[in-house]
Q: What sequence folds into this?
């Protein structure tokens, strides 16, 4: 049984660009969630997908969007990047909404 | 508003002693609580959880205590080891439907634990 994986590990973009981050959930998990972690803070919930449909969203603007695919993979897309989007982006998967979530190693995004 | 708070940014203990990390929450809809450990350049690793129907859960050296009336939980690590040095996050979620928090984990700001040899 493999854990949660994310790609890429690091990414540098410029303001105004678009970025796609990828995640492969643990096999058998039905939910995938994305979190943003700024330096010195706890992870902040962006949104969750349950069986390929959005199942809750945090306080993030619509330029943050996502997809979940049947093969346990997921994407986080961010349009019109801003400097404040620089953060560690974490993907987490689990069996049920609200239950234990298992995190990947994260993607460090730097926006210049 | 900060629904989950970890008021101690850091804690230092001697190897072999007990580490106690604290967490407070404000939302009475939370019914499931978790602790994660995070090393630099890694994602959070799940440690232990507790449902609101319990007041204690134990797993090896780790014990979580929940005091619902005080809206407080704590993580005890006994005995502490140098490898336990990391940032510890508590998180809460509402697992019942109908809450705006359903499906998401709300995290505290984290406590950096240093275990000295």
A:
């Amino acid at each position: 049984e493999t854990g949660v994986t994310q790609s890429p590990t690091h990414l540098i973009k410029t303001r105004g660009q678009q970025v796609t981050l990828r995640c492969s959930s643990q096999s058998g998990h039905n939910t995938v969630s994305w979190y943003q972690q700024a330096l010195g803070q706890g992870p902040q919930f962006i949104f969750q997908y349950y069986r390929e449909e959005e199942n809750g969203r945090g306080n993030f603007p619509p330029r943050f969007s996502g997809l979940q695919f049947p093969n346990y993979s997921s994407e986080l897309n961010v349009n019109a990047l801003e400097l404040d989007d620089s953060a560690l982006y974490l993907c987490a998967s689990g069996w049920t909404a609200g239950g234990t979530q298992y995190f990947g190693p994260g993607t460090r995004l730097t926006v210049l | 508003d900060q629904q989950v708070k970890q008021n101690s940014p850091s804690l230092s203990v001697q190897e072999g002693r007990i580490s106690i990390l604290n967490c407070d929450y404000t939302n009475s809809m939370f019914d499931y609580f978790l602790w994660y450990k995070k090393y630099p350049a890694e994602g959070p690793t799940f440690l232990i959880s507790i449902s609101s129907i319990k007041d204690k859960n134990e797993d090896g050296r780790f014990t979580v205590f929940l005091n619902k009336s005080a809206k407080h939980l704590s993580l005890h690590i006994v005995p502490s080891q140098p490898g336990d040095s990391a940032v510890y996050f508590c998180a809460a979620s509402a697992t019942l439907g109908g809450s705006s928090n359903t499906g998401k984990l709300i995290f505290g700001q984290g406590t950096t634990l240093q275990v000295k040899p």
